[in-house]
Recover the amino acids of this structure.
Protein backbone atom coordinates (compact mmCIF):
# COMPACT_ATOMS: atom_id res chain seq x y z
CA UNK A 1 0.00 0.00 0.00
CA UNK A 2 1.40 3.43 -0.91
CA UNK A 3 2.07 6.29 1.49
CA UNK A 4 0.02 9.46 1.57
CA UNK A 5 1.05 13.09 2.11
CA UNK A 6 1.56 12.60 5.87
CA UNK A 7 3.65 9.44 5.55
CA UNK A 8 0.71 7.25 6.60
CA UNK A 9 -0.82 4.66 4.32
CA UNK A 10 -3.54 5.99 2.02
CA UNK A 11 -6.12 3.96 3.95
CA UNK A 12 -5.07 5.36 7.33
CA UNK A 13 -4.94 8.88 5.94
CA UNK A 14 -8.27 8.81 4.10
CA UNK A 15 -10.42 6.75 6.46
CA UNK A 16 -11.06 9.67 8.88
CA UNK A 17 -12.51 11.64 5.93
CA UNK A 18 -15.47 9.24 5.94
CA UNK A 19 -16.05 9.53 9.68
CA UNK A 20 -16.09 13.25 10.54
CA UNK A 21 -17.17 14.28 14.03
CA UNK A 22 -18.49 17.62 12.76
CA UNK A 23 -19.40 19.22 9.42
CA UNK A 24 -19.65 22.86 8.33
CA UNK A 25 -21.54 23.90 5.20
CA UNK A 26 -20.18 27.16 3.77
CA UNK A 27 -22.76 28.92 1.64
CA UNK A 28 -25.63 27.15 3.41
CA UNK A 29 -29.09 28.36 2.41
CA UNK A 30 -32.75 27.80 3.25
CA UNK A 31 -34.00 29.07 -0.11
CA UNK A 32 -35.93 26.56 -2.21
CA UNK A 33 -34.27 25.76 -5.52
CA UNK A 34 -30.75 26.20 -4.17
CA UNK A 35 -28.29 23.29 -4.14
CA UNK A 36 -27.25 24.41 -0.67
CA UNK A 37 -30.84 23.98 0.55
CA UNK A 38 -31.07 20.48 -0.92
CA UNK A 39 -27.83 19.47 0.79
CA UNK A 40 -29.03 20.85 4.12
CA UNK A 41 -32.23 18.81 3.70
CA UNK A 42 -30.19 15.67 3.09
CA UNK A 43 -27.99 16.20 6.14
CA UNK A 44 -31.05 16.69 8.35
CA UNK A 45 -32.76 13.63 6.83
CA UNK A 46 -29.67 11.53 7.57
CA UNK A 47 -29.55 12.92 11.11
CA UNK A 48 -25.95 14.12 11.07
CA UNK A 49 -24.83 16.14 14.12
CA UNK A 50 -23.24 18.56 14.78
CA UNK A 51 -23.90 20.44 11.55
CA UNK A 52 -22.75 24.07 11.28
CA UNK A 53 -24.32 26.25 8.54
CA UNK A 54 -22.08 29.16 7.51
CA UNK A 55 -23.49 32.22 5.74
CA UNK A 56 -22.59 35.88 6.43
CA UNK A 57 -26.14 37.07 5.66
CA UNK A 58 -28.20 34.59 7.72
CA UNK A 59 -28.75 34.00 11.43
CA UNK A 60 -30.79 30.78 11.36
CA UNK A 61 -31.34 28.09 8.73
CA UNK A 62 -33.83 25.28 9.21
CA UNK A 63 -33.68 25.60 12.97
CA UNK A 64 -29.88 25.67 13.15
CA UNK A 65 -27.75 28.59 14.27
CA UNK A 66 -25.83 30.09 11.37
CA UNK A 67 -22.24 31.28 11.72
CA UNK A 68 -21.03 34.22 9.65
CA UNK A 69 -17.60 32.66 9.21
CA UNK A 70 -16.32 29.16 9.81
CA UNK A 71 -13.76 30.67 12.17
CA UNK A 72 -16.69 31.58 14.45
CA UNK A 73 -17.72 27.93 14.96
CA UNK A 74 -16.97 27.20 18.64
CA UNK A 75 -15.61 23.67 18.30
CA UNK A 76 -13.35 21.81 15.87
CA UNK A 77 -14.58 21.09 12.34
CA UNK A 78 -13.47 17.87 10.66
CA UNK A 79 -15.16 18.36 7.27
CA UNK A 80 -16.14 21.55 5.47
CA UNK A 81 -18.28 21.67 2.33
CA UNK A 82 -17.86 24.80 0.21
CA UNK A 83 -20.93 25.81 -1.80
CA UNK A 84 -20.01 29.46 -2.29
CA UNK A 85 -19.80 31.23 -5.66
CA UNK A 86 -16.60 30.62 -7.60
CA UNK A 87 -15.03 33.98 -6.77
CA UNK A 88 -15.51 33.38 -3.02
CA UNK A 89 -14.21 29.82 -2.89
CA UNK A 90 -10.50 30.63 -2.43
CA UNK A 91 -11.25 32.87 0.57
CA UNK A 92 -13.43 30.12 2.01
CA UNK A 93 -10.56 27.64 1.67
CA UNK A 94 -8.24 30.05 3.49
CA UNK A 95 -10.74 30.39 6.35
CA UNK A 96 -11.09 26.61 6.59
CA UNK A 97 -7.33 26.16 6.80
CA UNK A 98 -7.11 28.83 9.50
CA UNK A 99 -9.83 26.89 11.37
CA UNK A 100 -7.64 23.76 10.96
CA UNK A 101 -10.39 21.87 9.11
CA UNK A 102 -9.10 18.41 8.20
CA UNK A 103 -10.89 17.95 4.87
CA UNK A 104 -12.53 20.41 2.48
CA UNK A 105 -15.03 19.40 -0.21
CA UNK A 106 -15.21 22.12 -2.87
CA UNK A 107 -18.43 21.57 -4.81
CA UNK A 108 -18.14 24.87 -6.66
CA UNK A 109 -17.18 24.66 -10.35
CA UNK A 110 -15.43 27.08 -12.68
CA UNK A 111 -11.82 26.16 -11.95
CA UNK A 112 -9.45 23.80 -13.78
CA UNK A 113 -12.18 22.65 -16.17
CA UNK A 114 -12.91 26.27 -17.18
CA UNK A 115 -9.48 27.37 -18.36
CA UNK A 116 -6.03 28.55 -17.33
CA UNK A 117 -7.15 31.21 -14.83
CA UNK A 118 -9.39 28.73 -13.05
CA UNK A 119 -6.54 26.24 -12.99
CA UNK A 120 -4.29 28.76 -11.25
CA UNK A 121 -6.88 29.44 -8.56
CA UNK A 122 -7.34 25.70 -8.12
CA UNK A 123 -3.60 25.25 -7.63
CA UNK A 124 -3.51 28.07 -5.09
CA UNK A 125 -6.26 26.35 -3.10
CA UNK A 126 -4.17 23.21 -2.91
CA UNK A 127 -1.01 25.08 -1.99
CA UNK A 128 -2.74 26.81 0.92
CA UNK A 129 -4.49 23.64 2.06
CA UNK A 130 -1.37 21.49 2.02
CA UNK A 131 0.63 24.10 3.88
CA UNK A 132 -1.99 23.91 6.62
CA UNK A 133 -2.22 20.10 6.60
CA UNK A 134 -5.70 20.06 5.03
CA UNK A 135 -6.85 17.80 2.18
CA UNK A 136 -9.18 18.91 -0.63
CA UNK A 137 -11.78 16.89 -2.55
CA UNK A 138 -12.81 18.58 -5.79
CA UNK A 139 -13.47 21.27 -6.87
CA UNK A 140 -16.43 20.65 -9.19
CA UNK A 141 -17.76 17.62 -7.29
CA UNK A 142 -20.54 16.45 -4.97
CA UNK A 143 -18.25 15.04 -2.28
CA UNK A 144 -18.82 12.06 -0.04
CA UNK A 145 -21.64 9.63 0.69
CA UNK A 146 -21.14 7.38 3.69
CA UNK A 147 -24.37 6.08 5.25
CA UNK A 148 -22.67 4.66 8.35
CA UNK A 149 -21.45 8.19 9.15
CA UNK A 150 -24.69 9.85 7.97
CA UNK A 151 -22.93 11.74 5.18
CA UNK A 152 -25.36 12.34 2.27
CA UNK A 153 -25.22 12.99 -1.43
CA UNK A 154 -27.61 15.50 -3.02
CA UNK A 155 -29.88 12.74 -4.34
CA UNK A 156 -31.79 10.65 -1.83
CA UNK A 157 -29.67 7.53 -1.53
CA UNK A 158 -30.35 5.01 1.23
CA UNK A 159 -29.52 5.35 4.90
CA UNK A 160 -28.36 1.74 5.34
CA UNK A 161 -24.74 0.69 4.86
CA UNK A 162 -23.71 -2.00 2.40
CA UNK A 163 -20.72 -3.38 0.56
CA UNK A 164 -20.47 -1.38 -2.70
CA UNK A 165 -17.95 1.42 -2.98
CA UNK A 166 -18.13 4.09 -5.69
CA UNK A 167 -15.40 6.39 -6.99
CA UNK A 168 -16.23 8.86 -9.74
CA UNK A 169 -14.84 11.93 -11.41
CA UNK A 170 -18.44 12.75 -12.34
CA UNK A 171 -20.79 14.06 -9.67
CA UNK A 172 -23.87 12.94 -11.57
CA UNK A 173 -22.57 9.38 -11.93
CA UNK A 174 -21.97 9.11 -8.18
CA UNK A 175 -25.33 10.66 -7.32
CA UNK A 176 -27.33 8.68 -9.89
CA UNK A 177 -25.84 5.25 -9.25
CA UNK A 178 -26.32 5.46 -5.49
CA UNK A 179 -29.87 6.77 -5.73
CA UNK A 180 -31.01 4.31 -8.40
CA UNK A 181 -29.26 1.22 -7.07
CA UNK A 182 -30.39 1.91 -3.49
CA UNK A 183 -33.96 1.86 -4.79
CA UNK A 184 -33.20 -1.67 -6.04
CA UNK A 185 -31.81 -2.93 -2.73
CA UNK A 186 -28.14 -2.35 -3.47
CA UNK A 187 -26.43 -0.85 -0.42
CA UNK A 188 -23.24 1.18 -0.40
CA UNK A 189 -20.29 1.44 1.95
CA UNK A 190 -18.91 4.72 0.60
CA UNK A 191 -19.13 6.82 -2.55
CA UNK A 192 -16.82 9.63 -3.61
CA UNK A 193 -17.18 12.25 -6.32
CA UNK A 194 -13.73 13.80 -6.77
CA UNK A 195 -14.35 16.17 -9.71
CA UNK A 196 -11.26 18.05 -10.90
CA UNK A 197 -8.97 16.24 -8.46
CA UNK A 198 -6.93 19.29 -7.49
CA UNK A 199 -5.57 17.33 -4.54
CA UNK A 200 -7.01 13.88 -3.76
CA UNK A 201 -7.84 11.91 -6.88
CA UNK A 202 -9.79 8.88 -8.08
CA UNK A 203 -6.78 6.58 -7.82
CA UNK A 204 -6.25 7.60 -4.18
CA UNK A 205 -9.83 6.66 -3.41
CA UNK A 206 -9.62 3.50 -5.50
CA UNK A 207 -6.68 2.41 -3.37
CA UNK A 208 -8.64 3.27 -0.23
CA UNK A 209 -11.69 1.26 -1.32
CA UNK A 210 -9.42 -1.63 -2.25
CA UNK A 211 -8.24 -1.80 1.37
CA UNK A 212 -11.56 -0.88 2.99
CA UNK A 213 -12.92 -3.94 4.86
CA UNK A 214 -16.48 -2.65 4.42
CA UNK A 215 -16.22 -2.60 0.61
CA UNK A 216 -16.51 -5.83 -1.39
CA UNK A 217 -17.38 -4.48 -4.84
CA UNK A 218 -16.29 -1.24 -6.53
CA UNK A 219 -18.07 0.72 -9.27
CA UNK A 220 -16.61 3.78 -10.91
CA UNK A 221 -16.47 6.37 -13.65
CA UNK A 222 -13.25 8.03 -14.79
CA UNK A 223 -12.20 10.17 -17.73
CA UNK A 224 -8.45 10.16 -17.16
CA UNK A 225 -5.75 9.63 -14.54
CA UNK A 226 -2.52 11.48 -13.80
CA UNK A 227 -0.48 8.37 -13.04
CA UNK A 228 -1.45 5.57 -15.41
CA UNK A 229 1.09 3.10 -14.05
CA UNK A 230 -0.17 3.50 -10.48
CA UNK A 231 -3.78 3.12 -11.65
CA UNK A 232 -2.95 -0.06 -13.55
CA UNK A 233 -0.94 -1.71 -10.78
CA UNK A 234 -3.47 -0.85 -8.07
CA UNK A 235 -6.43 -1.99 -10.18
CA UNK A 236 -4.77 -5.30 -10.95
CA UNK A 237 -4.08 -5.99 -7.27
CA UNK A 238 -7.55 -4.92 -6.15
CA UNK A 239 -9.25 -6.98 -8.88
CA UNK A 240 -7.67 -10.12 -7.47
CA UNK A 241 -9.91 -9.77 -4.41
CA UNK A 242 -12.72 -7.35 -5.37
CA UNK A 243 -14.48 -6.76 -8.71
CA UNK A 244 -14.08 -3.28 -10.20
CA UNK A 245 -16.87 -2.26 -12.59
CA UNK A 246 -15.61 0.78 -14.47
CA UNK A 247 -17.03 3.08 -17.12
CA UNK A 248 -14.13 4.85 -18.82
CA UNK A 249 -15.25 8.07 -20.51
CA UNK A 250 -13.33 9.85 -23.24
CA UNK A 251 -12.27 6.87 -25.35
CA UNK A 252 -13.02 8.66 -28.63
CA UNK A 253 -11.43 11.88 -29.82
CA UNK A 254 -14.64 13.83 -29.30
CA UNK A 255 -15.17 12.20 -25.90
CA UNK A 256 -11.63 13.15 -24.86
CA UNK A 257 -12.31 16.79 -25.76
CA UNK A 258 -15.52 16.68 -23.71
CA UNK A 259 -13.61 15.22 -20.75
CA UNK A 260 -11.30 18.27 -20.64
CA UNK A 261 -14.27 20.65 -20.37
CA UNK A 262 -16.10 18.38 -17.91
CA UNK A 263 -13.49 17.64 -15.25
CA UNK A 264 -10.28 18.87 -16.84
CA UNK A 265 -9.10 15.28 -17.26
CA UNK A 266 -6.71 14.13 -19.99
CA UNK A 267 -8.42 11.03 -21.34
CA UNK A 268 -5.60 9.25 -23.21
CA UNK A 269 -5.43 6.67 -26.01
CA UNK A 270 -8.33 4.27 -26.48
CA UNK A 271 -6.09 1.32 -27.38
CA UNK A 272 -3.88 1.88 -24.35
CA UNK A 273 -6.86 2.20 -22.02
CA UNK A 274 -8.65 -0.88 -23.31
CA UNK A 275 -5.49 -2.94 -22.98
CA UNK A 276 -4.87 -1.68 -19.45
CA UNK A 277 -8.45 -2.39 -18.33
CA UNK A 278 -8.29 -5.90 -19.73
CA UNK A 279 -4.94 -6.74 -18.17
CA UNK A 280 -5.96 -5.23 -14.83
CA UNK A 281 -9.02 -7.48 -14.60
CA UNK A 282 -11.45 -4.57 -14.64
CA UNK A 283 -15.05 -5.27 -15.67
CA UNK A 284 -15.40 -2.62 -18.36
CA UNK A 285 -18.75 -0.91 -18.98
CA UNK A 286 -19.64 1.53 -21.75
CA UNK A 287 -22.92 2.99 -20.51
CA UNK A 288 -25.01 3.53 -17.40
CA UNK A 289 -27.10 0.57 -18.54
CA UNK A 290 -24.09 -1.74 -18.51
CA UNK A 291 -22.86 -0.43 -15.16
CA UNK A 292 -26.20 -1.29 -13.57
CA UNK A 293 -26.45 -4.63 -15.41
CA UNK A 294 -23.07 -5.74 -14.09
CA UNK A 295 -23.63 -4.27 -10.64
CA UNK A 296 -26.88 -6.23 -10.16
CA UNK A 297 -25.12 -9.43 -11.17
CA UNK A 298 -21.88 -9.07 -9.23
CA UNK A 299 -23.76 -7.91 -6.12
CA UNK A 300 -26.28 -10.77 -6.12
CA UNK A 301 -24.62 -13.73 -7.84
CA UNK A 302 -21.71 -16.04 -7.01
CA UNK A 303 -18.85 -16.39 -9.48
CA UNK A 304 -19.21 -19.35 -11.86
CA UNK A 305 -16.78 -22.25 -12.06
CA UNK A 306 -16.91 -22.22 -15.87
CA UNK A 307 -18.66 -20.83 -18.95
CA UNK A 308 -21.27 -23.56 -19.50
CA UNK A 309 -24.77 -22.08 -19.63
CA UNK A 310 -28.12 -23.76 -19.23
CA UNK A 311 -30.99 -21.82 -20.84
CA UNK A 312 -34.55 -22.31 -19.59
CA UNK A 313 -37.15 -20.51 -21.66
CA UNK A 314 -40.89 -20.23 -21.99
CA UNK A 315 -40.75 -18.56 -25.44
CA UNK A 316 -39.13 -20.98 -27.90
CA UNK A 317 -37.87 -18.42 -30.42
CA UNK A 318 -36.13 -16.40 -27.72
CA UNK A 319 -34.37 -19.55 -26.52
CA UNK A 320 -32.96 -20.18 -30.00
CA UNK A 321 -31.87 -16.59 -30.52
CA UNK A 322 -30.28 -16.43 -27.06
CA UNK A 323 -28.33 -19.59 -27.84
CA UNK A 324 -26.74 -17.77 -30.78
CA UNK A 325 -25.90 -14.80 -28.58
CA UNK A 326 -24.29 -16.96 -25.89
CA UNK A 327 -22.14 -18.83 -28.40
CA UNK A 328 -21.08 -15.59 -30.10
CA UNK A 329 -19.97 -14.28 -26.71
CA UNK A 330 -17.77 -17.31 -26.20
CA UNK A 331 -20.04 -19.12 -23.74
CA UNK A 332 -20.96 -22.79 -24.12
CA UNK A 333 -24.29 -24.64 -24.10
CA UNK A 334 -23.42 -28.27 -23.30
CA UNK A 335 -25.74 -31.26 -23.26
CA UNK A 336 -27.49 -31.94 -19.99
CA UNK A 337 -26.61 -35.07 -18.06
CA UNK A 338 -28.81 -38.14 -18.49
CA UNK A 339 -30.24 -37.61 -15.01
CA UNK A 340 -31.24 -34.03 -15.82
CA UNK A 341 -32.84 -35.06 -19.12
CA UNK A 342 -34.91 -37.71 -17.32
CA UNK A 343 -36.08 -35.14 -14.76
CA UNK A 344 -37.03 -32.70 -17.50
CA UNK A 345 -38.97 -35.34 -19.44
CA UNK A 346 -41.15 -35.90 -16.39
CA UNK A 347 -42.08 -32.22 -16.12
CA UNK A 348 -42.09 -30.87 -19.71
CA UNK A 349 -44.86 -31.98 -22.12
CA UNK A 350 -43.57 -34.04 -25.07
CA UNK A 351 -45.53 -31.92 -27.55
CA UNK A 352 -44.30 -28.37 -28.12
CA UNK A 353 -41.48 -28.50 -25.60
CA UNK A 354 -37.81 -29.53 -25.53
CA UNK A 355 -35.66 -31.09 -22.82
CA UNK A 356 -32.45 -30.22 -24.63
CA UNK A 357 -30.28 -27.17 -23.94
CA UNK A 358 -31.85 -24.64 -24.50
CA UNK A 359 -35.01 -25.87 -22.77
CA UNK A 360 -38.33 -24.92 -24.32
CA UNK A 361 -40.99 -25.01 -21.60
CA UNK A 362 -43.70 -24.44 -24.24
CA UNK A 363 -47.16 -23.09 -23.46
CA UNK A 364 -47.13 -25.31 -20.39
CA UNK A 365 -45.15 -22.52 -18.68
CA UNK A 366 -48.25 -20.32 -18.84
CA UNK A 367 -50.76 -23.00 -17.85
CA UNK A 368 -48.57 -24.30 -15.03
CA UNK A 369 -45.97 -21.66 -14.00
CA UNK A 370 -44.49 -24.03 -11.38
CA UNK A 371 -42.83 -25.85 -14.26
CA UNK A 372 -40.22 -23.07 -14.09
CA UNK A 373 -39.33 -24.09 -10.55
CA UNK A 374 -38.86 -27.75 -11.41
CA UNK A 375 -36.75 -26.92 -14.47
CA UNK A 376 -34.51 -24.51 -12.53
CA UNK A 377 -34.03 -27.08 -9.79
CA UNK A 378 -33.04 -29.78 -12.28
CA UNK A 379 -30.61 -27.63 -14.26
CA UNK A 380 -29.05 -26.04 -11.16
CA UNK A 381 -28.05 -29.51 -9.95
CA UNK A 382 -26.53 -30.56 -13.28
CA UNK A 383 -22.72 -30.91 -13.05
CA UNK A 384 -22.41 -29.99 -16.72
CA UNK A 385 -23.83 -26.51 -16.08
CA UNK A 386 -22.06 -23.53 -14.49
CA UNK A 387 -24.63 -20.76 -15.01
CA UNK A 388 -28.38 -20.49 -15.63
CA UNK A 389 -30.31 -18.08 -17.83
CA UNK A 390 -34.08 -18.07 -17.32
CA UNK A 391 -36.36 -16.42 -19.91
CA UNK A 392 -39.94 -16.02 -18.78
CA UNK A 393 -43.17 -14.20 -19.50
CA UNK A 394 -44.52 -14.48 -15.96
CA UNK A 395 -43.63 -11.89 -13.34
CA UNK A 396 -44.62 -10.38 -10.01
CA UNK A 397 -44.75 -12.26 -6.74
CA UNK A 398 -45.31 -15.51 -8.60
CA UNK A 399 -41.97 -15.34 -10.40
CA UNK A 400 -40.14 -14.14 -7.30
CA UNK A 401 -41.35 -17.06 -5.20
CA UNK A 402 -40.68 -19.58 -7.97
CA UNK A 403 -37.04 -18.48 -8.36
CA UNK A 404 -36.40 -18.28 -4.62
CA UNK A 405 -38.00 -21.67 -3.97
CA UNK A 406 -36.08 -23.30 -6.83
CA UNK A 407 -32.67 -22.08 -5.66
CA UNK A 408 -33.14 -22.22 -1.89
CA UNK A 409 -32.10 -25.84 -1.41
CA UNK A 410 -29.39 -26.13 -4.07
CA UNK A 411 -26.11 -26.74 -2.24
CA UNK A 412 -23.66 -25.50 -4.87
CA UNK A 413 -24.96 -22.07 -5.79
CA UNK A 414 -24.60 -21.04 -9.41
CA UNK A 415 -25.24 -17.67 -11.08
CA UNK A 416 -28.85 -17.33 -12.22
CA UNK A 417 -29.96 -14.38 -14.33
CA UNK A 418 -33.56 -13.80 -15.35
CA UNK A 419 -34.97 -12.21 -18.49
CA UNK A 420 -38.47 -10.92 -17.84
CA UNK A 421 -40.57 -10.39 -20.98
CA UNK A 422 -44.17 -10.51 -19.76
CA UNK A 423 -46.37 -7.51 -20.55
CA UNK A 424 -45.48 -4.01 -21.68
CA UNK A 425 -42.18 -2.31 -20.98
CA UNK A 426 -43.86 -0.32 -18.22
CA UNK A 427 -45.37 -3.43 -16.63
CA UNK A 428 -42.06 -5.28 -16.71
CA UNK A 429 -40.23 -2.30 -15.20
CA UNK A 430 -42.56 -2.39 -12.19
CA UNK A 431 -41.39 -5.91 -11.37
CA UNK A 432 -37.70 -5.06 -11.36
CA UNK A 433 -37.45 -3.57 -7.84
CA UNK A 434 -39.37 -6.58 -6.51
CA UNK A 435 -36.94 -9.05 -8.10
CA UNK A 436 -33.76 -7.11 -7.35
CA UNK A 437 -34.96 -6.52 -3.80
CA UNK A 438 -34.92 -10.29 -3.32
CA UNK A 439 -31.46 -10.75 -4.82
CA UNK A 440 -32.71 -11.88 -8.25
CA UNK A 441 -30.65 -10.43 -11.10
CA UNK A 442 -33.25 -9.51 -13.71
CA UNK A 443 -33.01 -7.99 -17.21
CA UNK A 444 -35.51 -6.90 -19.88
CA UNK A 445 -33.56 -8.51 -22.73
CA UNK A 446 -31.82 -11.88 -23.01
CA UNK A 447 -28.85 -10.38 -24.85
CA UNK A 448 -28.09 -8.22 -21.82
CA UNK A 449 -28.50 -11.21 -19.50
CA UNK A 450 -26.10 -13.27 -21.63
CA UNK A 451 -23.51 -10.48 -21.62
CA UNK A 452 -23.72 -10.35 -17.83
CA UNK A 453 -22.94 -14.07 -17.64
CA UNK A 454 -19.96 -13.50 -19.92
CA UNK A 455 -18.64 -10.80 -17.56
CA UNK A 456 -19.08 -13.06 -14.52
CA UNK A 457 -17.19 -15.85 -16.26
CA UNK A 458 -14.41 -13.56 -17.51
CA UNK A 459 -13.87 -12.10 -14.06
CA UNK A 460 -13.83 -15.58 -12.54
CA UNK A 461 -11.19 -16.50 -15.13
CA UNK A 462 -9.14 -13.45 -14.15
CA UNK A 463 -9.32 -14.41 -10.48
CA UNK A 464 -8.05 -17.84 -11.53
CA UNK A 465 -5.07 -16.28 -13.33
CA UNK A 466 -6.35 -15.07 -16.68
CA UNK A 467 -7.44 -11.70 -18.09
CA UNK A 468 -10.66 -10.01 -19.17
CA UNK A 469 -11.78 -9.28 -22.74
CA UNK A 470 -13.62 -5.96 -22.72
Amino acid sequence: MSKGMSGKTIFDELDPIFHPRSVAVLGASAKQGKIARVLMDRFLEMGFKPLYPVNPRESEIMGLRVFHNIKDVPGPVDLAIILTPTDAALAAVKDCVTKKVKTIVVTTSGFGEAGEQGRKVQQEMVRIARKGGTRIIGPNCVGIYCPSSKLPFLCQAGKDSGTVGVVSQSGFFADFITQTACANNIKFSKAISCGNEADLNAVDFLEYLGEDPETELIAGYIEGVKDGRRFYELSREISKKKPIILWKGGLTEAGARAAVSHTGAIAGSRAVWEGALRQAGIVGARSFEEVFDYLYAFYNQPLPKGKRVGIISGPGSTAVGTTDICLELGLELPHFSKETVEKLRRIIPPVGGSVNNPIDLSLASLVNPLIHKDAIDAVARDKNIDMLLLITVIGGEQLREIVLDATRNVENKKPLVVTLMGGTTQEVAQDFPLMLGSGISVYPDAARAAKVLKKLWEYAEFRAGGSICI
